[in-house]
Amino acid sequence: MTPRRKRMWIIALCVLGVGIAVALILTAFNQNLMYFYSPSEVARGEAPGNRAFRLGGMVVKGSVERGDAKDLTVRFKVTDFAQERAIAYRGILPDLFREGQGIVAIGQLDAQGVFVASEVLAKHDEKYMPPEVAQALKDGQASKAAQP
Amino acid sequence: MSALQAFLHMGGYAPYVWTSYGLAAVLLIFNIVLPRRAEQAALRRLARREALGESHDTAS
Amino acid sequence: MNFAFLHKYASLMHFYRLSHTLTPWLAAATLALFAWGLVGGLLLAPTDYQQGDSFRIMYVHVPAAWMSMFVYVTMAVAGGVALIWKLKLAEIVSRACAPLGASFTFLALVTGSIWGKPMWGTWWVWDARLTSELILLFLYLGVIALHGALDDRRAGARAGAVLALIGVVNIPIIHFSVEWWSTLHQGATVSKFSKPSIHIDMLIPLLVMISAFQCYFAWSLLVRVRSEILDYDRNASWVRELGRAQEAGR
Lengths: 148, 60, 250
Description:
The complex is a heterotrimer. By secondary structure, chain A is an alpha+beta fold. Helices cover 34% and strands 27% of the residues of chain A. Chain A has four helices and six strands. The radius of gyration of chain A is 23 Å and the shape is extended. Chain B is an all-alpha fold. The longest helix of chain B is centred in the middle third of the chain and has 39 residues, at 14-52. Chain B has helices at residues 3-9, 14-52. The N and C termini of chain C lie far apart (47 Å). In chain C, 78% of the residues lie in helices and 0% in strands. By secondary structure, chain C is an all-alpha fold. Chains in contact: A-C, B-C. Chain B binds chain C through residues 7, 10-13, 16-17, 19-21, 23-24, 27-28, 30-32, 35-36, 38-39, 42-44, 46-51, 55, 57, 59-60, and chain C through 42-43, 47, 52-54, 56-57, 60-61, 64, 99-100, 103, 106-107, 110-111, 114-115, 117-118, 152-154, 216, 219-220, 223-224, 226-227, 230-232, 234-235, 239-240, 242-244, 246-247, 250.
């Protein structure tokens, strides 16, 4: 084998070796790399019980309740379309927060299973379109839902 | 608000948008100007070397 | 394998001359594409239904992020060629890619952070996408450090090439991070296999800006490479001739 060919093999095998090593490491750390838990995972008890974690999901329509003047707590529910979870949060909500929006909340479950959040971040999707197109889509969906 | 003002206002996101574009401009200009200057400096060094008649540089 | 026909272009002298022929055209194309992309992205593209005008940061953030990965792969491939075939030109190209790629990565991270603050509500999160892109910046800085650390610049280039090749595994990680793990960063808007989830009037300026950045990369790479060539080959007769011409021109 020429020296050049030998160098080629060494490099190819090293790159492959590093790739396999990293794949194995990532598989082992897979759960830790998940940025947030879904409501279903929390319902199954997969989220840590005694420390803060992140809960992500979509804000359920009609579930947002803002407290009265004395109580600044906002309550709402998030869903992954399989399970729901109630969240209670005191603080400023991001601009994009609204019903039907994705969010990620950081906090802990209380004794009643309500997720008490210390921070709420908005998670937006990868769709980009002008407002009139968004409206047309919404109207299209509404009329479809209204059909018997 | 005039059209120009509305454009610069970027729907209220002006500091975010213009800082991003400004940083991009700085980096892109920097990465052209710096190597061009380096080439001119290298050519000047070569000219000086020829003028002095030196040839003892060790090639790497 | 006989690559004899490529030998001419691996010659540093020919590449130097070729770069001077190409760069004016690349510069013109870059400026034209940026003009078109900026008008399209900042003026013509409609406002987004949920992100308003802040989404226009996309027109620098996405090309920068794309280039940060493209340039890394270029740097790694050139580095591999340098290690296997010991070609000087490959070493020079690999060296030149590093500061350019690091700049793109830095730009992607900072514009992403600036965009994240109003939209997500935070400057930074340690999710898989952002963390792996930050690791990419560290890889670039490591390669640049190796390039400068050794007195022999050829050995430095080869050491950097080794790190670049080892780090190449990070590229698919960055790309697939939003699919493999739950992340705050959203999934891919444009992918090869499905219809883009972006309105066409917003998509076209993005494609133009990506082309502008690609053209810019070619332009700035050639400029950087040719100034390194003058140092690499400083004792060659053609370079000394250039020096004489420069001296005569004063």
